[in-house]
C-alpha cells in the first residue's frame, strides 16, 4: 500500500520504520547528500548501512549493503538520503528503489517528487504490500500568519547560504541547552531534521502565502522560560530559496538568531554566479527583516562550519572571527569554550 505521511508540529504523529538503509543514488556532491550525513551524525543507531547506484557516488562512511543484506541485518526501510536540486527522484535510481521494495523494505523519502506519484514504485509497493512514505507533505489547513507575539523564547539558525550547518547548529544548541537544564526543543523545518526529530514542518513544501503561518504552528505559545530552537532553511541571499527563509524568519519571530557560515565557500551552492555574502551582511539583513515581527530580535553570535579545517586552523579562525566581529563565534560540533560562550550569549537577556 502507499502512504503519504502528514507532517505537523505534533511530535507524536510521525512514525518511520526504523532502522534505515541509507540510499545515496549517484550523487557526487556531498552537499546534496546532507540528509544521509545528518542521519549518520544524529541518528546513527537507526542506520544499518548505505547503498549507492554509482561507484562515484559520495559515501557517508557506513557499511555498504544491498537491500537484501540490509534487510537481513534488521533494516525495515530504505531512506533516500539525497537532497538534490528540485528534490527529484531520478530514473537511474528506480532499479535500486524497486529492489528494496521487492526484498521487503519500505521506502522513506523527503524529496519534492513523491514516491506515491511514481507509477513504477506504486505498482511494486502494491504487489509486495510495502509502504511509500513521503515526508515532504505539509498538514492541511495551515493558517495565514497572524503576526501575534507568542509566549516563550525562540532561536532561529540562519545562514549565508544553504547546506552549511543550520540544522547541525540548531541540534547542537538544543542538546547543549537541555544539558544545562534549560527547557528546549529542536523544531525541524526540513526533511532531514524531521526524520531525526520525528516531527516538524517541511517548510519548502508549504505554499508561499502560508510559510509564516506554518512557522507559527511549528513554534506555538510556550512557558516563558522555554526555548524553541528552530532549524533554518536556505538563506535570505539565495536566488532560489530566499522566499522560504523569509517566511520562516517572520513566522518564527525569533528572539535570537545565530548566523551560520562555512569558511572558504565563495559562491552559493548550485548558483556559482552568485557570491556568498559576508557574515556582517547576513547579520544585518536578518535583523532588519526579523524586526518586522519581533522588534527585539538580536544576533547572539556566529556558527562556523570548520569541518574542512584542522583543529588548530579552526581554533585560530574562530578566535580571529570573534575578535573581528565582536561576537561569540564557535563551531558547535567541535564544542569547547567558544561554544559555551555562544550558549551564554543566546541565553543572555537583551541589554536595556
Write the layout of secondary structure elements.
Blueprint: E1 3-4, E2 20-23, H1 34-42, E3 47-51, H2 67-72, E4 77-80, H3 94-102, E5 106-109, H4 119-128, E6 132-134, E7 153-159, H5 166-179, E8 184-187, H6 191-197, H7 211-218, E9 227-230, H8 242-252, E10 256-261, E11 267-268, E12 271-275, H9 279-290, E13 298-304, H10 311-325, E14 329-330, H11 336-347
Helix content: 25-40%
> Describe the biggest sheet?
6 strands, parallel
Number of strands: 14
Spell the H/E element sequence: EEHEHEHEHEEHEHHEHEEEHEHEH
Radius of gyration: 20 Å
How much beta, percentage-wise?
15-25%
CATH-level-4 superfamily name of the largest domain: P-loop containing nucleotide triphosphate hydrolases
Q: CA-to-CA gap between the ends?
A: 58 Å
From the spread of the alpha carbons, the general shape counts as globular
Per the CATH scheme, the topology name of the largest domain is: Rossmann fold
Spatial arrangement of strands, main beta sheet = 1-6-5-4-2-3
Low-pLDDT runs:
1-14
Average predicted confidence as pLDDT: 92
CATH architecture of the largest domain: 3-Layer(aba) Sandwich
InterPro entries: DgcN-like (IPR011669), DgcN-like_C (IPR035086), DgcN-like_N (IPR035402), P-loop_NTPase (IPR027417)
Domain D-glutamate N-acetyltransferase-like C-terminal: 144-337
Organism: Povalibacter uvarum
Protein name: Putative NAD-dependent epimerase/dehydratase family protein
